[in-house]
Design goal:
alpha+beta, Nuclear Transport Factor 2, Chain: A, about 40% helix, globular
Amino acid sequence: MKSFRSMVYLMVLGVASCASMSDSAIKFKETTLAYERALRWGNYDMALALHSNETTPLSEQERKRLSHIRVTGYNVINTTNDPPHSRIIQLVELRYYNEDYAVEHKFNTRMEWEQIKDSIQWHIISPFPKFK
């Protein structure tokens, strides 16, 4: 019974915290989660679609190369909010391996997110991560 009360308390606390977040903050959280999932599942077209500066689709050669890349970690190290410019900057550690070599690599990348004007939508203005 005690664990049930604890679970109910945590659910109420979770709902209350979401209710206090702005629509923009909720959308940012949803968008960053979708981006992370796209990278982890190898859906690079979806991940690329969130980059506002990447307007050309992946070449067949790049698509083939990325098909061997498996992202194993997406860890946000630091987040900086820049409210006047509707931007959020994240330092992210990406971990991945190439299926052909099975050696894990990691690198830090700066992800600069910008809120689309007059919207709650977010996009990335940083370049697409370079998996070498």
